[in-house]
Design brief:
By secondary structure, the chain is α+β, with helices and mostly antiparallel strands. 25% of the residues lie in helices and 22% in strands. Bound molecules: adenosine monophosphate.
Length: 114
């Protein structure tokens, strides 16, 4: 079953899209945890980090390049930011279409909440 992010790719539901190319899409998180909170997704539907295959290497490499580019555009590159990918229940994954969070614009504190 397709996730809500497939519907964003297909423009079936609205999103604040900040970047798109043939491999990836990036849009602002609907419930931002910081002044900048962008989600980057491969267009190919990969459910979780466990489902990555060698065929995904280009798209996942592109996610990193685009994340760095967006951090610069958003003006948070120098102060710093956090990139994270949640996987399954213990990782707190809610949407089962692999996505990278780009979070910044304030000091984010220690990496893991207790
Ligand atoms: P995760 O817990 O890593 O699966 O994160 C899912 C993220 O998707 C959360 O930060 C949500 O706020 C975000 N989200 C869910 N639905 C939407 C949507 N329609 N547009 C933008 N972000 C969304």
């Amino acid at each position: 079953m397709s996730s809500i992010f497939a519907k964003i790719i297909a423009r079936e539901i609205p999103a604040d899209i900040v970047y798109e190319d043939e491999l990836v899409l990036a849009f602002r998180d609907i419930a931002p945890q910081a002044p900048v909170h962008i989600l980057l997704i491969p267009k190919r539907e990969i459910a979780t980090a466990n489902d990555v295959t060698p065929a995904d290497e280009a798209a996942l490499g592109r996610l990193m390049l685009v994340a760095a580019k967006l951090a610069a555009i958003e003006g948070i590159a120098e102060d710093g930011y956090r990139l994270l990918i949640n996987c399954n229940e213990h990782g707190g994954q809610e949407v089962f279409h692999l996505h990278m969070h780009l979070v910044g614009g304030r000091s984010l504190g220690p990496m893991l909440a207790k």
